[in-house]
Amino acid sequence: MLIVLKYGGNAMAPPNVPDHLLDDIAARVAAGDRIVLVHGGGPHIDAALAERHIATERVGGLRVTDAATLAVTEHVLCGTVNKALVRSLWSRNVRASGISGQDGRLIVARAVVPVGGVSLGFVGEIVRVHPAVIEGLLVAHMVPVIAPLGISEDYSHALNINADTAAGAIAGALGADAYIVVTNVDRVRRIVNEPSTGIAHLSARDARAYLADGTFDGGMIPKMESVLDALERGARRAVIAGSGPGALTRALEGGGTTVTSA
Q1: Could you give the CA distance from residue 112 to residue 194 in angstroms, rounded to a whole number?
Q2: Sheet with strand 158-160: strands edge to edge
Q3: Cα 101 from Cα 13, distance rounded (Å)
Q4: DSSP codes of every residue in 227-244
Q5: Greater pLDDT, 15 or 70
Q6: Which tens digit of pLDDT belongs to each residue from 211-231?
Q7: Close Cβ partners of 77 (under 8 Å, ≥ 6 residues apart)
Q8: The dihedral of CA 227, 232, 238, 243: what is its sign?
Q9: 21: which residues sit within 8 A by CB, 6+ positions away?
């Protein structure tokens, strides 16, 4: 089974705390699954910007990324978070290799259209995905660990890509058997603060309807949009699920919210 897994910065285990998701990855790889890990790192970027006294501004849920913010973002995602995950996987006997969306032109992007007349700077929207570099690592029995940065169409600079968006596009380009988004809730909910309204299964049509009528809001919007994009591009199914011990296997066995094309 080919699994593309999006691991958000808010879901990551703090330093010196057991990381159950990485344990799950090790178990699934040992059982024969192929896994691609796409990670975020928002809280780590926020902390690094604060240390450097660089203000953080968001418009429409996206981080305004000037040149200084881009430099910090690239350093944190590619040089700190990515390599920490690679080391942690190797410590679990998982062959892992860390790259970003710039490597091998994996994610080619262009600057997003200004939101409300405000330029977002070096924030990108995906134009093309070239998965050859991932496929090569999978053939070599490696787990690709991918930082969500794209490369501009003229190859002159990096662009900051939403991690959910990057993961969904990669899952679709690879035709993944399962695209799994690990987040801080066990299931997508019709009412955010009421766990009893969790949804076990959604069709892509119903998911679009919930996006349109405002049922899904906040951070769930980019996650659901990435799920729909993954399915449209070729992934077989998608799951949004919580973290904790055994989360990956639970998600594959119906423990989260499964979204399918039909």
Answers
A1: 34
A2: 124-129, 107-111, 149-152, 158-160
A3: 23
A4: HHHHHHHT-S-EEEEE-S
A5: 70
A6: 888 888 777 888 899 999 999
A7: 39, 41, 44, 45, 100, 147, 148, 149
A8: negative
A9: 5, 7, 11, 13, 182, 243, 247, 248
Supply the pLDDT for residue 254.
83
Report residue 16's pLDDT band, with 50, 70 and 90 as the boundaries: low
Q: Which residue has the tokens 């002159």?
A: 156
137 Cβ partners below 8 Å, 6+ apart? 97, 99, 143, 144
Q: Which are the contacts of 196, defined by CB distance < 8 A and separation ≥ 6?
A: none
DSSP class per residue in 153-199? TTSSSEEE--HHHHHHHHHHHHT-SEEEEEESSSS-BSSTT-GGGB-
Token code pair at residue 230: 């993954």
| CA–CA distance, 73 with 47 (Å, rounded to integer) | 11
Report pTM.
0.93
* Whether the Cβ atoms of residue 122 and residue 144 lie closer than 8 Å to each other: no
pLDDT digit string, tens, across residues 76-132: 999 999 999 999 999 999 999 999 999 999 999 999 988 777 889 999 999 999 999
Residue 194 has pLDDT above 90, yes or no: no
Which residue type occupies 2? L
CA 6 to mean position of chain CA atoms:
4
The contacts of residue 54 (CB under 8 Å, 6+ apart) are: 68, 69, 72
pLDDT at 25 over 90: yes
